[in-house]
Structures are given as structure tokens and as C-alpha cells.
């Protein structure tokens, strides 16, 4: 007699193909709220700051935890490319993962509710985004044509309806907005309560400010470009780590024929960081971004750049050539970009040939 399988819950999507990366300086009590969604998956926790501090993880989670001593031991001299005392250290988790997909979240991000009151499974929505094509070459006015109840609108070229592989899914946040320090200072009480039920592809040739606290990506397609730069201790800038990675990834995705989606899913961002501390971290970046943005808007990658690694090395050369005039920091950052790729390829020798997209 056949077993009744109607009551068996479906397997979590991509259970064996996805790692969750969390940078932290504190005990991970926030995972209790995420347990229904995260427990089936493997966690990689990157402990920032003091490596002698014990980080407690709630029981029942499958995880590995790396502190600064582990990073130094694993990478040796190349550990210099991993930021210290900054959440940019999370990119070390991208490097040591061996899964095809990555989801990364901050430890002050909780489960949000949709307008009906239902808890949002952010991870499930990110997976949906990544598994459906993007439309970077022609804007669809119904946004993501692959969502249920949508399609390509009249006038959308049939030759472009196949879309492009999705490399990055960029999620949003309710409650505390992701503002820079000057905006925080003038709007200290502002909260984002607007839930917009939309996913859209960022068009080719358009940059965006990527936020790393609710982010997923296809590691095989874009992983080597997901370097969060040199930030934090010993560096003249902070809070530009995810944006730097986003700008680099966007120009590489445009070159490689890959797409980036933004919109759903939402998480609940629970804690506002100190705007005065943020201003101290950001103030040079606020000036520098007026040169950085035009730099990325005008980057041209040669056709010989057929892998993400080759694109990233070429980008590092152009950073050294063009942005080191803005500040010597960019000379050091360009060198760190090369070190990052060397470390990535050392830990991921097979990945060196996998990180290809459509040229």
C-alpha cells in the first residue's frame, strides 16, 4: 500500500545548495525568530572584532564560526584583504562557502510581516528572484514578468523575453531606513512603513546603492566580485563596503550579461545605528562618491574579460589608475582587490572556471 505523502512538508528550496552568511559581534539570539526559515540551512558566522569573545548560537542550527584568528590562519598574508572591526568581514564567508547560492543578513534584522500580517520568508523570496531571469535590456512596466499574474507587456521585444540569468537579489527593509548619516541626523524619527509588492530588474547601465543586510546572490555567477573592500579598523572609511561591492558587481554584471533584481523581500531592521558615529565613518566617502560614481559610470571592460575574476582584476587596474588620484586609499584598495581574487582562487580552484556568465 502506498504511503500517504499528503501531510509531508515540502523540502526547503535549495537546502543543499545555499549557505547563510552572518557577520556578528554578539550572541545570535535573533536566530530564534528566523528558526522556521533558517534551521534547514547551513550557517557561516563570521565573528568580527575580538576573537577571544565567545559567540553563542541557539541550539539546533547547523553552523561553522570563523573569528579573526581563523581568517589569519586560513589566508596567511592574504588575510590583509579582509576588513577588521567592520561588517565587511562577511565577505570572508562568501569565500569559504562551497555552495552555489549565498544569503547574507545582519544580526539586527528580524522577520517582517506583510500587510496581511503574515510572516515574510525572506529567504524563499530571494530564491524565487534568483531562479527567475532578469530583464536588464528593456524595462517591463509590469515589473518582473516572471511573477504570478504578470507577463511581458505589449511592445516588449520577443527577442529579449528570454531574459538574462539573475546574479543578485537585493532585498529591502521595514522600520529603520538604510540612510546615510546626514539624512539620519535630519530625519531621526523617520521609519519606513511602506510595503511595496514589487520586484524589478535594475536596467543595464544604471548603478544602485547595494545594501548588504538583506542580500542574496548566485556565487557561481558573481561570487568573486562580491568583495566588500577595505573598511573599519585602520581604514579612513566605513559603511561603503556593500555599496563598493554593488558598484563593482553592477558594471561586471552589465559586461557579462547578468541581471540584478531589487524589491521584495522585506526584513524588519530593528536597530538604528548612531548617526554621529556613522558620520565619522562616512564623511570621506560622502566626498569621494562624487568621483567614484562617475568612475563606475564610465568604466569599460574589454572583451577579453570573459570571467568575473578577469573583470575584477581589470577593474582593480582602473581603480588604481583613476581613483588613486582622489586619495592614496584607493591605491591600497586596488591592491586588496587583487589579493582578494588570489585568495578566492586559492580556496576555490574549481570556481575559477565556473564563474562565467554570458559574454
TrEMBL record:
GO terms for molecular function: UDP-arabinopyranose mutase activity. It holds the Pfam family RGP. The record marks 154, 161 as: Required for activity. This is UDP-arabinopyranose mutase. It is found in: Golgi apparatus. Glycans are attached at residue 154. GO terms for biological process: cell wall organization; plant-type cell wall organization or biogenesis; UDP-L-arabinose metabolic process. InterPro entries: Nucleotide-diphossugar_trans (IPR029044), RGP (IPR004901), RGP_fam (IPR037595). Probable UDP-L-arabinose mutase involved in the biosynthesis of cell wall non-cellulosic polysaccharides. Belongs to the RGP family. The keyword Oxidoreductase does not apply. It catalyses: UDP-beta-L-arabinofuranose = UDP-beta-L-arabinopyranose. SUPFAM superfamilies: Nucleotide-diphospho-sugar transferases (SSF53448). Its EC number is 5.4.99.30. Keywords: Cell wall biogenesis/degradation, Glycoprotein, Golgi apparatus, Isomerase. GO terms for cellular component: cytosol; Golgi apparatus; plant-type cell wall. It is an enzyme of class 5 (isomerase).
Amino acid at each position: 500500500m502506498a504511503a500517504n505523502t499528503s501531510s509531508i512538508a515540502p523540502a526547503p528550496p535549495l537546502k543543499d545548495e545555499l549557505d547563510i552568511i552572518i557577520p556578528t559581534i554578539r550572541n545570535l539570539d535573533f536566530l530564534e525568530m528566523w528558526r522556521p526559515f533558517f534551521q534547514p540551512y547551513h550557517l557561516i558566522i563570521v565573528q568580527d572584532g575580538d576573537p577571544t569573545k565567545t559567540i553563542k548560537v541557539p541550539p539546533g542550527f547547523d553552523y561553522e564560526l570563523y573569528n579573526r584568528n581563523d581568517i589569519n590562519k586560513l589566508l596567511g598574508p592574504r588575510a590583509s584583504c579582509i576588513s577588521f572591526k567592520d561588517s565587511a568581514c562577511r565577505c570572508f564567508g562568501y569565500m569559504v562557502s562551497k555552495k552555489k547560492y549565498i544569503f547574507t543578513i545582519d544580526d539586527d534584522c528580524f522577520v517582517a510581516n506583510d500587510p496581511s500580517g503574515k510572516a515574510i520568508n525572506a529567504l524563499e523570496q530571494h530564491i524565487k528572484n534568483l531562479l527567475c531571469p532578469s530583464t536588464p535590456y528593456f524595462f517591463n512596466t509590469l515589473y518582473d514578468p516572471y511573477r504570478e499574474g504578470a507577463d511581458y507587456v505589449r511592445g516588449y521585444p520577443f527577442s529579449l523575453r528570454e531574459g538574462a540569468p539573475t546574479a543578485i537579489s537585493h532585498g529591502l527593509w521595514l522600520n529603520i531606513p538604510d540612510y546615510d548619516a546626514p539624512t539620519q541626523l535630519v530625519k531621526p524619527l523617520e521609519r519606513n512603513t511602506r510595503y511595496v509588492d514589487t520586484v524589478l530588474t535594475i536596467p543595464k547601465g544604471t548603478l544602485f546603492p547595494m545594501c548588504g543586510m538583506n542580500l542574496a546572490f548566485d556565487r557561481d555567477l558573481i561570487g568573486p566580485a562580491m568583495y566588500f573592500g577595505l573598511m573599519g579598523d585602520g581604514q579612513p572609511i566605513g559603511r561603503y563596503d556593500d555599496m563598493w561591492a554593488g558598484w563593482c558587481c553592477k558594471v561586471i554584471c552589465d559586461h557579462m550579461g547578468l541581471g540584478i533584481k531589487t524589491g521584495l523581500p522585506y526584513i524588519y531592521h530593528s536597530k538604528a545605528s548612531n548617526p554621529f558615529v556613522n558620520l565619522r565613518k562616512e564623511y570621506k566617502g560622502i566626498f569621494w562618491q562624487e568621483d567614484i560614481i562617475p568612475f563606475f559610470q564610465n568604466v569599460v571592460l574589454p572583451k577579453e574579460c570573459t570571467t568575473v575574476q578577469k573583470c575584477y582584476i581589470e577593474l582593480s587596474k582602473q581603480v588604481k589608475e583613476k581613483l588613486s588620484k582622489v586619495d592614496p586609499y584607493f591605491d591600497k584598495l586596488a591592491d586588496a582587490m587583487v589579493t582578494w581574487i588570489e585568495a578566492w582562487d586559492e580556496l576555490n580552484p574549481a570556481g575559477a572556471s565556473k564563474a562565467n556568465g554570458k559574454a
